[in-house]
Amino acid sequence: MSTNLDDINRAVVEMADDKFLVDPYMNWATGENIPIVEDFGIDLKTVETRPWPRMGVDGCFAHLIGRGDFLAIYVLDIPPGGKTAPQQFMFEEVFYVIDGHGSTTVETYDGRTHSFEWGPKSLFALPLNCKYQHFNGSGSERARIYSCNNAPLVINLYRNNDFVFDNGAKFPERESENDYFAGDGELIPKMPGRHMWETNFVPALDTFELQKWDKRGGGSSNIMFSLADGTMHAHCSEMPVGTYKKGHRHGADFHVMCCTGQGYSILWYEFEKDLVRVDWDHGVVFAPPDQMFHQHFNTSPEPARYLAIAMGSLRYPMLAEKKRVWLGMDVDVNVGGNQIEYEDQHPEVHKMFLEALAQNGAKSNMAKLIDESEYRDDPALAKALAD
User: Fold this and answer.
1) At the top level of CATH, which class does the domain 5-174 belong to?
2) Same fold for the domain at 5-174 and the one at 181-343?
3) Rg (CA), the chain
């Protein structure tokens, strides 16, 4: 058999049957009879949805090439004045509102009902195995939301639909006495890059206050979220105008989606051989494959924010690999960390950034971090340099 990775993956698909290389999650997803979109990067604003009987609205699965073994995405279109069917299941979800306005009703372990209203760029999570239902608050426009969830982990582990979808187990320890469904929360300060906001609901991710994280580069800021006391991680990061993050790497499963601005990310194992570029604006999501270096660039005239969702939270890492990520994510690779410092990045990185800025009529704000004098002799690149 060929050792080419693509050939191996094709062989796995061709050889799988009900006795060999079984994937219960994919069998379940295929059986739901809705579109399954698979790609390196996916624009969740434009993916096709079709009627999904389980959810009572149109939906699709969006499976990213680098999603790893634990997480997946589904997208829901709730029609004007419509609602989903009531749901309850044993996997965790983090929801993000792509567009539209509506509300979600949640029944907690003690039988009480809570409702909260959401709009574009809202982020929320619900306690494990609670009963819930989504409603579209508009009579004229659809609402599109997506769920990043650990259904692959749970379905592959238990292989029993009654356990996953018809289980009365209650988890009161995950339900806070605070009014986290109203958007309240608590800042848990730790250290730059690891400050946490504990809540169930963030009304508007694009205006949420972030915390400075200079070691990530370019005037970076971020916040880590602890959502519904779950094992799934989420964080939001921002790049100021004319800046970019330092290159870094980690394990698979980080689902990265643009919330504000526009720009691009590059990904590579060997920079000269297999560089991949993903251009993004709001709603585009991608997942860097396992240990693939990647770097994010803001080329828009406004700050660019992105949301990243993964398995293993800062509170409950779950995996030894995640513990190493949370401790070493802003530590130089030369001393055992996961980050490439600006002085060690490939020479083409900054040139590519200036070319992209020049095409957009934007200016670089990286002069305090990188010597840009060598680019002033190139008229095309000089357009992107501050006076």
Assistant:
1) mainly beta
2) yes
3) 21
Any residues with CB less than 8 A from the CB of 261 and at least 6 apart, and which? 239, 281, 298, 300, 302, 303, 304, 305
Domain spanning 181-343, CATH class: mainly beta
Q: What is the DSSP annotation of 150-172?
A: -HHHHHHHH--HHHHHS-----G
Rounded to whole angstroms, the Cα distance separating 229 from 34 reads: 31
Give the three-state DSSP class for 317: coil
Between vectors from CA 257 to CA 92 and to CA 271, what angle results, nearest 5°? 120
Task: Tell me the C-alpha distance between 195 and 203, whole Å.
Answer: 19
Domain boundaries, the chain: 5-174, 181-343, 346-382
Cα 374 to Cα 384: distance, rounded to the nearest angstrom: 13
- Other residues' Cβ atoms within 10 Å of the Cβ of residue 68: 20
SS3 350: helix
Identify residue 358 by its one-letter amino acid code.
A
The tens-digit pLDDT sequence of the chain (387 residues) is 334 656 656 666 677 677 788 999 999 999 999 999 999 999 999 999 999 999 999 999 999 999 999 999 999 999 999 999 999 999 999 999 999 999 999 998 889 899 999 999 999 999 999 999 999 999 999 999 999 999 999 999 999 999 999 999 999 999 887 778 888 999 999 999 999 999 999 999 999 999 999 999 989 999 999 999 999 999 999 999 999 999 999 999 999 999 999 999 999 999 999 999 999 999 999 999 999 999 999 999 999 999 999 999 999 999 999 999 998 999 999 999 999 999 999 999 999 999 999 999 999 999 999 999 999 999 999 999 987
Which residues, listed in sequence order, are joined to residue 294 by a DSSP beta bridge?
248, 267
The number of C-alpha atoms within 13 Å of 336 and in the hemisphere containing its C-beta is 2
